[in-house]
Amino acid sequence: MIEEGTLVFPGDKVATAEELLPGAGTADVNGTIVGTVMGTFMVNKKNSQAEVTPLTSTPVVLHPGDTVICEVKHVMDKLVLVDVLHVAGKHRHITGDKDAAIPVPDIAKAYVTSAKDKFKIGDMVRATVTQAGANIRLSTAGKNLGVIKSYCTQCRAELEVARDKKAELECPRCGSLEERHIAADYGEGNLDWK
Amino acid sequence: MELIKDGKRLDGRKPDELRPIKIEAGPLHRADGSCYLEWGGNKIIAAVYGPKEAIPRHIQNPTRAVINAKYNMASFSVGDRKRPGPDRRSREISKITSEALENVILTEMFPRAMIDVNIEVLDADAGTRCAGITAAAVALADAGIPMEDIPVACAAGKVGDTVVLDLMGEEDQEGQADVPLAIAPRTENILLLQMDGHLTVEEFDRALELAMNGCQQIATMQREALMKKYQSFEED
Could you tell me the pTM of the whole model? Predict the structure, then answer.
């Protein structure tokens, strides 16, 4: 095993399979633990794992708890289908499939009869990841979560927060009043706000 | 044309000597990883994007990522203007580059994803496929793509009945054989091996030995280039 804190490159031998298990940034190649990214070698003593803390940027993989920005693609009564576009605080493409679903119980803390009352196609939504992997599930139950940008269903103008309490949003062009599950910072365009 | 005179080649190199090489990691800020490489008269830029969602969807593999390397020669990269766009040769090089890189990248970590590797030849002077793979490898490491090793490539060949390392333009055109080789330098596993021309078994073994040694020298330069970029980051 090499010394902790050593700079390693992909392919550098850091330990053997008898000494440590492969952890983040390492792989077991025929009994040899090698670094897979450029970074600093560390030993996770709790799990007996060899780890490399990367110096480079790393691919963006969705994990439960991540805050994401997505676009609504389809709305059904019990489910909203979205396309995940951006992970807050990350500036790289999202790895793999980007199709996700928001089940109706996860839309808000309060009871929601139909998802069609809270989202419309084309809305930009901030959500958190509750399940990653092959089937991505999101939740918008939270103060900072929900629609951050939406368009009028009558004239497609960008909706603004309604001045009176008759509805959540109103259209500055045609005056249409619309309901959405909006985030606390609706319309401010904070893509990296968590 | 006499390609070897008094044991020296046209540019004054010994048979087992590489051309001057300069590698810079991360010159492109909008790419996830990039590399600029000068190798003799070759000038090559490589950029890596991804892993990202593989499109069109029918190319997605549910168990691993797809490597999509694209090798392209600029129209001004050669003496006579090259007709822009893909051709038989560039499609072949793109394919063999993808296959060489696939063997070291841990593709199973990114199912349904695609990694784009764009190799742009700005100036060509023989050995561009080897230079392209070498630059792409640095760009992949710069992008933080997990790999078992940093692949490296180098060619050997036969010129004036002598087996030589790293053919230059005139040697490539007038020479008797060309053997491009790409390896994973830690294990010396061969990722790419081609041969154009005729060599005896002994000559082939010598060419392979020269190319392996050349690859190990270039592997050191790749690491130095990556270290230079990230050391300057730490100093800032």
Answer: 0.92
